[in-house]
């Protein structure tokens, strides 16, 4: 198994921090080059402080968008770094410290984005929670079930609902962060995988509802990506070999996922793309 060693052993408490990771993830800081694909647009990215959300915030800013993003209050250091990266691209950043497990904070995230940045073109439902466990459903407590479903699913519905009237005016689009877990569920992530399968179903169904308004709805399904979520929620043994079981034989970098979010957001490139789930999995099937 040591042939498959991918990362040094490490463990964090959720939600996890970027600085504490070894190696620190690549969010495209030194590589992403924008081409005005989102010039003048406004995006709201949930969980934009770290991981895939930070890579999306950087890419969107370099493509010309102002970026509001949410984070948890424990993640202030990561949020400050994302804010600086968006501003370094010459765009406005709006960091929002909000726990999204309540309808009111989801409404607030949308309202403050529209009030401060002048509208909304792209809603990226990226925030997510998982906790890998060895036990079975009989041992899941309500707190765990609530945390997984409220973060991954309720918030996504509440945010999307609040955003629709604003998206209709542009018209804009919604991009959800799904997962390979929707197709190939791990029994240690029973509740999480179920939310991701629901997100896929919601994505195609909402695309049907909102098509007549010109609003596109899509999802990205990442495979194993090196973000704080992993050392914060997976067992050390799993972290050490994280990504080795993909056809490409390694974990992906957040910087390798962000371009999928750029493509789906781009009104020029993805004008006829709606109701689909784009896999970024290192070769694992997403059908
Ligand atoms: P991450 O830890 O960097 O990002 C997750 C973010 O979710 C956190 O930064 C946090 O701000 C936010 N969040 C968690 N609970 C929240 C709550 N109650 N209220 C508001 N925000 C909350 O990790 P990531 O891997 O970049 O995760 C982003 C998305 O990617 C998640 O939806 C995750 O399910 C999905 N995903 C990740 C992987 C992977 O291997 N890393 C694979 C497939 C899908
Ligand atoms: Mg974070």
TrEMBL record:
InterPro entries: NAD(P)-bd_dom_sf, Sc_DH/Rdtase_CS, SDR_fam
UniProt entry tagged with the keyword Oxidoreductase: yes
A Gene Ontology molecular function term of the record: oxidoreductase activity, acting on CH-OH group of donors
UniProt entry keywords in alphabetical sequence: Oxidoreductase
Region Disordered: start-end pairs: 1-31
Coiled coil: none
Family to which this protein belongs: Belongs to the short-chain dehydrogenases/reductases (SDR) family.
Name of the protein: SDR family oxidoreductase
């Amino acid at each position: 198994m040591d042939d498959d060693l991918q990362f040094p052993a490490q463990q964090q408490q959720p939600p996890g921090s970027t600085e504490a990771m070894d190696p620190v993830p690549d969010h495209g800081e030194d590589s992403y080059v924008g081409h005005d694909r989102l010039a003048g647009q406004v995006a709201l990215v949930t969980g934009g402080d770290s991981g895939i959300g930070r890579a999306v915030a950087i890419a969107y800013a370099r493509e010309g968008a102002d970026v509001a993003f949410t984070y948890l209050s424990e993640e202030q250091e990561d949020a400050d770094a994302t804010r600086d990266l968006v501003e370094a691209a010459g765009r406005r950043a709006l960091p929002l410290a909000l726990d999204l497990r309540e309808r009111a904070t989801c409404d607030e995230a949308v309202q403050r984005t529209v009030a401060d940045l002048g509208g909304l073109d792209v809603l990226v439902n990226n925030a997510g929670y998982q906790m890998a466990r060895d036990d079975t459903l009989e041992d899941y407590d309500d707190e765990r079930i609530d945390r997984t479903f409220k973060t991954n699913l309720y918030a996504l519905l509440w945010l999307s609902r609040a955003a629709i009237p604003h998206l209709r005016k542009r018209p804009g689009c919604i991009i959800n962060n799904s997962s390979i877990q929707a197709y190939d569920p791990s029994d240690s992530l029973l509740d999480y995988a179920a939310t991701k399968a629901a997100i896929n179903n919601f994505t195609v169904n909402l695309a049907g509802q909102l098509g007549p308004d010109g609003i596109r709805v899509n999802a990205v399904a990442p495979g194993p990506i090196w973000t704080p979520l992993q050392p914060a929620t997976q067992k050390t043994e799993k972290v050490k070999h994280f990504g080795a079981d993909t056809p490409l034989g390694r974990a992906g970098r957040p910087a390798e996922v962000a371009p999928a979010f750029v493509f789906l957001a781009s009104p020029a490139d993805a004008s006829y793309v709606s109701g689909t789930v784009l896999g970024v999995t290192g070769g694992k099937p997403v059908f």
